[in-house]
Specification:
Blueprint lengths: L12 H7 L4 H9 L6 E2 L5 E2 L2 H15 L4 H42 L3
Antiparallel strand pairs: 1-2
Length: about 110
């Protein structure tokens, strides 16, 4: 059996709420406020992924620390931006390493300059 991607939407709202230790109304509110965008089935049913559940758990932690929804939204936006920048940096590093490897291969094939 193949491993499931953490972004695959598999949980209904009741299960996601239970996993995040929230109620379904809270999940709907978070979606309304733009803090979460679950996938939808063809029939319109919300489907949550493991990534969504992790985000909900992060929201719950911030809420328990006394942060309001606006503050939580800002923290999540900054964390998302940070993750995107890290991904870009990693991609640039991988590209740079590949270019260095190719240059070394060419030098090896052509001999000393």
């Amino acid at each position: 059996m193949a491993a499931r991607d953490s972004a695959t939407p598999v949980y209904g709202i009741a299960v996601a709420a239970q996993l995040a230790d929230m109620n379904a109304a809270s999940l709907r509110l978070l979606e309304q406020k733009g803090l979460l965008t679950p996938a939808r089935s063809e029939g319109g049913t919300r489907r949550y992924s493991d990534d969504d559940v992790a985000r909900l758990q992060r929201v719950a932690l911030l809420r328990d620390e006394g942060m309001n929804i606006a503050g939580i939204g800002r923290v999540l936006a900054l964390e998302d931006e940070n993750e995107g920048l890290r991904d870009e940096l990693e991609a640039e590093r991988a590209e740079s390493a590949e270019l260095r490897r190719r240059a070394a291969d060419r030098r090896e094939k052509t001999g000393p300059a």
